[in-house]
Fold:
Amino acid sequence: MTSGGSLLLLILDLLGTFAFALNGALIAIRNSRIDIVGVIALAMITALGGGILRDIMIGNVPPETFRDWRYLAVAAGGGLVAFGFSPHLARFGNFIELFDAAGLSLFAVTGALTALDFGLGGGQAVILGAVTGVGGGTIRDVLVRKVPSVLSSTGGLYAIPALIGATIFVVGHGLGANQIVIAIVAAAVCFAIRMVGVHLDLTAPTPRGTKD
Amino acid sequence: MTSGGSLLLLILDLLGTFAFALNGALIAIRNSRIDIVGVIALAMITALGGGILRDIMIGNVPPETFRDWRYLAVAAGGGLVAFGFSPHLARFGNFIELFDAAGLSLFAVTGALTALDFGLGGGQAVILGAVTGVGGGTIRDVLVRKVPSVLSSTGGLYAIPALIGATIFVVGHGLGANQIVIAIVAAAVCFAIRMVGVHLDLTAPTPRGTKD
Amino acid sequence: MTSGGSLLLLILDLLGTFAFALNGALIAIRNSRIDIVGVIALAMITALGGGILRDIMIGNVPPETFRDWRYLAVAAGGGLVAFGFSPHLARFGNFIELFDAAGLSLFAVTGALTALDFGLGGGQAVILGAVTGVGGGTIRDVLVRKVPSVLSSTGGLYAIPALIGATIFVVGHGLGANQIVIAIVAAAVCFAIRMVGVHLDLTAPTPRGTKD
Structure:
């Protein structure tokens, strides 16, 4: 999509990368034993990890966001900004949440598109869309020893909006819809579900008999 | 092996996938903070993760079990069944254990075969057979923050039967034995050692001076 | 570099592999629930994991150290030695530290060189040099449920010397310096910073407002 030359999409994609990087760095900073190298490493892993996992799965190596220095620079920059200004970032919590939801939505759609471009089936493209959206945060959570938020029923829905957004895109793509239109619709739906989920604190069903 | 058209082996392989998925989902369900998406994700990771790791290592991408929708469907189905019926599954504990051992045995053998087919040496094929058998459960354990059972001296032997089964297959294959026969023998030995290990609660040696 | 036929570099590389394997096994042994298979598996993962991650990222599969039986044998041997002699290895702590720093330095340089050989840019080569140096230990730490030491501000600098060594090599390489000379200089600087960091217990900056 980026290579398609759409400047708008590139800018949104880089904004999502920046938001994911801020988010990863802030989670790292809350862990008192992590130093500046760890903060920047976790920012980059959060921002780029999902796309890297996807590209390794489809054989698109070196991974796209790793090859392109703009993604590396924006991800490292997000980590540095968070490192330098973390005490002041609390008041921007809502913006970070917005960017994070934007990143999730864009990554779910561009992840699904990349998978389709590499000839994978629709079901696989949906899964890889979701992996692109949630993969970086999952690696980050494993590294800082949290149960990955994608598995958990707390903090609002996370994987579900990504799966729905990727599904809309894959179905629309299969029906021959205009690619830019369906990408925007799919990302917007993902974004809306994510934001509603955060604000209403929605949770997916948990197994019967589980104690909350 | 699947592509070799052997219906019996395909069925056994899918049964092993289903058993691994049930097993992964049940472990997820025991963790009270994991929702339905997490349960199905862990079921699929447990069932497919080992083969995916192997295929990434040998450059067989997109990974075989990820390309083939039957594996994805069976793995997701195992997760859904476990989610819906978890309170009733306790009484099938022995069946799940049997299927799990069958999955381990089949994956160890098909993993080693795939590695040989891609031109790797015998030692590498043994390691990749074991990785195919234990890899999915290891990723699952990392995600739910357990020390991976493959590293641990509790719960009966797990990596050792897989290594022995893969070794028998690789040696037999190198000696020119009939591929189906040696596959069955290798899987049967792995299965037998695993089941004996579970029932006698066998453990591998631990380092001297370690407190149990 | 190995394929360049330099026997000295091969020997140093295998010594580094051995030291990383000893180190991984000793950390596994400290965890009382890990058996002999787990000790050897963690030794091999610590010694080979960084190079495997790098090679998967650049599409050099099967990974170089996995294809070459000498690396597998040396890594498994290091695990076995640690398993058999762990009570006696305490007195060799300084040697293990030296070898570990040597492994870090050599892996950072050979990792960066491999990335350049595969056509990656300078920034990417620096990152992959560091990944080669610290990746194996990071996977090990995740498996035994420690916060990866590469992220942490304790235990002396770890990622920073690797990043500096890889940077020196990449810059020297870009300026056309003799490859062997610049490799030795880069590895020596990395080694020196690592050893000084350990002995002075240097730490990288941590975020403001974090409690130590």
Notes: Residues 1-5 of chain B have pLDDT under 50 and may be disordered.
